[in-house]
Automatic annotation (TrEMBL), chain A:
The gene is Snf8. Belongs to the SNF8 family. Pfam families: EAP30. It comes from Oriolus oriolus (Eurasian golden oriole). One of its GO terms (biological process) is protein transport to vacuole involved in ubiquitin-dependent protein catabolic process via the multivesicular body sorting pathway. GO terms for cellular component: ESCRT II complex. This is Vacuolar-sorting protein SNF8. InterPro entries: ESCRT-2_cplx_Snf8 (IPR016689), Snf8/Vps36 (IPR040608), WH-like_DNA-bd_sf (IPR036388), WH_DNA-bd_sf (IPR036390). PANTHER family: EAP30 SUBUNIT OF ELL COMPLEX, VACUOLAR-SORTING PROTEIN SNF8.
Automatic annotation (TrEMBL), chain B:
Component of the ESCRT-II complex (endosomal sorting complex required for transport II), which is required for multivesicular body (MVB) formation and sorting of endosomal cargo proteins into MVBs. Belongs to the VPS36 family. It holds the Pfam family EAP30. Its main location: cytoplasm. It comes from Oriolus oriolus (Eurasian golden oriole). This is Vacuolar protein-sorting-associated protein 36. GO terms for biological process: protein transport to vacuole involved in ubiquitin-dependent protein catabolic process via the multivesicular body sorting pathway.
Amino acid sequence: QMSKQLATFRAHLEEFASKHKQEIRRSPAFRVQFQDMCATIGVDPLASGKGFWAEMLGVGDFYYELGVQIIEVCLALKHRNGGLITLEELHQQVLKGRGKFAQDVSPDDLLRAIKKLKVLGSGFGIIPVGGTFLVQSVPAELNMDHTVVLQLAEPIPGSFLAHSQPIPALFQEHLLKEGMAWLDAQAPGEPQYWLPALFTELHSQEITPEEAKEALP
Amino acid sequence: QVKFDSGVLLLSTHRLIWRDQKNHECCIAVPLSQIVFIEEQAAGIGKSAKIVVHLHPASSNKEPGPFQSSKYSYIKLSFKEHGQIEFYRRLSEEITQRRWETIPTGQAMQVNKDSQAGRIRAVGIVGIERKLEEKRKETDKNISEAFEDLSKLMEKAKEMVELSKSIANKIKEKQGDITEDETIRFKSYLLSMGIANPVTRETYGSGTQYHMQLAKQLAGILQTPLEERGGIMSLTEVYCLVNRARGLELLSPEDLVNACKMLESLKLPLRLRIFDSGVMVIELQSHNEEEMVAAALETVSEKGSLTADEFAKLVGMSVLLAKERLLLAEKMGHLCRDDSVEGLRFYPNLFLTQS
């Protein structure tokens, strides 16, 4: 008896798609609304490419392809930032990669795509930091305490963590090991830690051909 | 500066007319014949684009207007939103053509009220603006219609979710009485709707017929790439490879994982392996990571010590997989780690070999 209901629903969805499929593709705001409503009723439109939502509305292809682009950017830049990148830089680089004729993607779209990538086990994660987000793309154990440290870093160009702040040195060391933080031992006063992920100078740099090769298997 | 802002500028063959947007009664005009010349002023920071209209001195029989006289011989038209370029072009045309000299005033208006139809037939600048406004309204209407339809759709989807919950409960109660067939069908319904599998996941896994087919497809697609990459690939690599190849009807990450989980049970020549770190890889059945470890040990011994990055470059592997191999070697006791702020470095385990 469920199959009958399912067929009916499928028809409704088809009708909706014929009228509004464009809207989903065109409008980031509409996508957000759509996703939120799905979440509220307990439906995940991105769970499977074989699901009705993906099939009829094309939401699947949009987000899964975005996932591929995110993976490639993160891989290409990993050696620069240790596998930690701001959402803004990721957004910029992804837009560049997509070219000017592609659909617009919003930071919200990126976050949703990344949430789906987590299940692949290669360490994708999202860390809220001072109003924005850092995207992790390596399986480093950034446990709760590390994320606290990251959150304390001020979002100014070349942010640093003061050694005198009450953060266990152990955690700062962990970030150093992973290459996510750099130590300036020659800084005047106390040693300073820098997070390459937050270097805005690096944002404008293109991904070099060598880095791009690294990204594609 | 005068207080005439928020208005619409109209151009006819005879006059330049400004009408207050809010108060349509308020309407002022300048005959085009009064214009000496016009010039553009580009927009800047905090400044809107402007057209400066230089005028002849007012004639004594000038019609009553906001000012009887002015010390300035020009007026400035400020385009706060848009339209300056087009308007400048049209105004230039009219001034050049001087049609007011030939066309009698009665037929003058380009913009006129079509009193019969009761609509305003708009051409020229105002026409363009109006069309844009209509289009904007229609887009807005489309969006609100879309949202309305979306809400209705979600209501129906919600019903489906409720239905699936009640079915799931029935399955739970009837534990033994449900045929495998029915369970499989139910799972595919859940897949279609994007509803998480509430009950049967523990017993039968999240896989469906679709995932079984997918697993078989993957086995075919991945054979060669795996051989080219030393028999092992991370799941993210596989995701990218497969989806890039497909182009359309892409796999979701979950589809990929669910399919890969079935590889072994379907006796396919690849398998899914999950390392302690959580990293997931696909290996050829013929691939033996433990044997690769022995080779890794040799490489590390030759160099004295290696980090995951160095090892990856040497061997031609991705850093992710290089690290996993070294970690596995460590787990098996062949390597020791030196964990410092300079990074994680691996050494042959001399404790084992030289005790």
